[in-house]
Design a protein that fits this description.
alpha/beta, eight-stranded parallel barrel, 358 residues, 43% helix, two-stranded antiparallel ribbon
Length: 358
Amino acid sequence: MSQEFLWYIPNTVEPGHRGDDTTAGWGSIEYSTALALAAEAHGWGGALLGTGWGRPDAFTVATALAARTTTFKPLVAVRPGYWQPAQFAGAAASLDQLSRGRVLVNIVSGLDNPAAYGDTTLEPALRYARTREFLQLVRRLWTEERVTFHGEHFRVTDSTVAPRPYASGDRAHPALYFGGASEAAERVAAAEADVQLFWGEPLDGIAERIDRLRKLSDEVERRHEPLEFGLRVTTLVRDTTEEAWRAAEEKVARMAKDGTEPAWAARQRAAVGQRRLLDLTERGEVLDTCLFTAPGRAGGGGAGSTWLVGSPDDVAEALRRYRALGVTHFVLSDTPYREETARVGDQLLPRLRRLAGA
């Protein structure tokens, strides 16, 4: 199985993302490049680029960062409905060639102010059916010539992408990451994705979902290599366990005092995966060895709903347990982004690579 250790670049023009106290430079090429170069310098394979209407376009930013780095892999978040699959397949293949195989793709089906960019497909079942066609068609356009596809949502006739993605060894095209916890989402992942991304759930929840997705892969007659699994979670690391928990509790107290709800929070709360995270608070404030659920109550959303908290050894051991379940792709983060890129990269990644035998 392939293995990735990725960071996160928020890609927003608004300061203060997840409590980051940097006041200047957000959305500029200089600041985004500095974050990407820091990730590269401190051992990260690349970073997920945040996406959303009202943010800089993630694909454009990924292209700029690929040109300013050497090994950095942008994990580009894209939405069917914002992109047509043939257009995206061509653009991504071109960037993949120009960057010598450094593109990763995260397909997002969740709602994000769709009326602002003209997306009229709102029903969840239709959105996931569209996502499945998007994944099918993009993969075919990356690997076949003269593709004809007449689906319910997308159609192409006699289409060939040139240039093809950068091929090297077993890699024929960029990995296709996908998230989602609903039954419809999991069926799409089992059939068409390369990597299913999970948010920071306890080990038993991740184990259950991996088992279900593997069974679903057989049920839907998956035609690709076996589905791989990834974890997107906040990691609050300090030199000692005590320092880490003190910092975590202080940060949650500030979040609760601020009480500002991001514009996307109401939409995200409706998602099955987000509800699973918020429901964890009923099981306890700390689950497994160091999974902190309090941030979800204080306004944290998505990957900020639960945090792995502790010393480098504590968090490395927690992540090793996810690795033992079959998780091989890790997308980690904490704020302030620039400082934590270095801290977590320097203190945590060497331990993770030793534990994984990398």
